[in-house]
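Here comes an entry:

___
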Amino acid sequence: MDFNRAWDIVVVLPGMGNCGLIPGMEHPPFACPLPNQETILLGVSGGADSLALLYSLHRAGLRLLVCHFNHLLRPQAGQDAAFVQQTAQNLGIPYRGGSADVAAHARANHQSIEEAARELRYRFLFQQAREEGAGMVAVGHTADDQAETVLMHFLRGSGLAGLKGMQPLSLLPA
């Protein structure tokens, strides 16, 4: 597996520093906007994409905080959370977990499951980033995720901006 190309989106909280490329990577996929001493909160699902990102950033020697959000949608979701927590512990990385009833949130807010899951997941990740003082939230995605995003944007009637899918670096308001 080529760990250097296993992800395609990094979300940055603005106003949190500036640095060069991630050290130790031959072909870094993005310019890191944080000094090495800043914490990067890593959203880890337990899938190959987020684990590749976790191992790559850990190998690069960056300060990490692993977070996992349980959507409570599958019976084995608790096992996924336990796996991510154990993986973080094995690497000596702090871990934070959270959960919410995504299906109930989707019903109450007239959203699709995917939309509700994304909203609650990022709400949790950014809340943890603020509480822990992390300057960046990073998540891993596969090419299939990118294609799904483009298709979803197309079906919603997106303009050209939405048809390009997820960007490697997205600045969001703090």
Q: What stands out?
A: The mean pLDDT is 74. Residues 41 and 136 are 6 Å apart (CA to CA).
